[in-house]
Queue: 2 jobs
Job 1
Amino acid sequence: EIVMTQSPATLSVSPGERATLSCRASQSVNSNLAWYQQKPGQAPRLLIYGASTRATGIPARFSGSGSGTEFTLTISSLQSEDFAVYYCQQYNNWPPFTFGQGTKLEIK
Amino acid sequence: QVQLQESGPGLVKPSETLSLPCTVSGASVSSGSYYWSWIRQPPGKGLEYIGYIYYSGIGSTNYSPSLKTRVTISVDTSKNQFSLKLSSVTAADTAVYYCARGPRVTFGGVIVGAFDIWGQGTMVTVSS
């Protein structure tokens, strides 16, 4: 089973600034990686799949990069609605699908 | 617009079976274009894959290794639902349970393993 590790656990950033979240896989997942955003009391929302393809309706300020074992989610200019928990998920070696433990993006 | 909706009891006693249907609207669970999955989230924790069903005339299932002895996922095409059953529950099974659409089977046969649409989630507490 592939283990996904996200860092940092908590990231404090001011509105309008850039946020960079990291996700590492225990072995190569090629580009088979997705990112999700979860706000309190809500279901996760798919942001990115294929490591860099935005899902339908996702704003351009969200971008994904990386391949193999190292991945990054960048939010270029943080809006108030972007403060949430973000999860990465691999789908290269499945089943099972595995998620990272999450990064909480909070207002600085 | 595709929507998924979980339903079921919010409280289950230890050693009993948790049963949750997920009703799908705006898409067919038997189209063969998508897998249909269950994912859970214990309070204050991360996401855990439970299993999926893929139905295209015949149902194919997969379950998380840690849960497979207790999990069954099935489809009711007449109701356009898929359901989760988890037996012999304990307090460790207390979680928000989500149904989700995904993976997706593309026209070229490539499978994209992301979960693109989720139900709102239902909180299940295991307690006597």
Job 2
Amino acid sequence: RKEVEQDPGPFNVPEGATVAFNCTYSNSASQSFFWYRQDCRKEPKLLMSVYSSGNEDGRFTAQLNRASQYISLLIRDSKLSDSATYLCVVSQPGGYNKLIFGAGTRLAVHP
Amino acid sequence: DGGITQSPKYLFRKEGQNVTLSCEQNLNHDAMYWYRQDPGQGLRLIYYSQIVNDFQKGDIAEGYSVSREKKESFPLTVTSAQKNPTAFYLCASSMQGGKQPQHFGDGTRLSIL
């Protein structure tokens, strides 16, 4: 089983749609969770951290379910500029800041 | 502006040649990392360094070497022992303590001639 699993997509949605991405992780002792965005042939950029109580940043909402080892990202009112690959990232317990990156879910927003 | 600078953006390696990828940061971060990304795969950790003059192997260190002589700099050498070097190489840095997000440079694409 992969340490971090994501549906690779692609998710093809029209502008204005709401889209949700899911991610599962294998290590129940993981403590920190993030969503990154990666544009084609570019570096990953931090989109948001994910907190236990859930958190929102504008049109983006992240949720964490520790019991199910499941993380989600909801994007409301999709824009063309949201087209990218979204990476689910989970910290590995241990002495240093090791992050495990999912392979990503690709989103394509069309007019 | 604070950030991470990787160079060159594109690099071509001849067979049997060692090449060095540069990574410099001015974020005053203690920890630095090198990743490799292949199409359709997640990032894989090559080496990391938590402090100057110290570094550790990641998950796929074979065929690579690093140094950390200065806080700001963490160069990666891809040696001739790395038989499949074609990939997108990403350098990252983070603050120490807890599980911090990592911030990335804009990457180097390495190809074999």
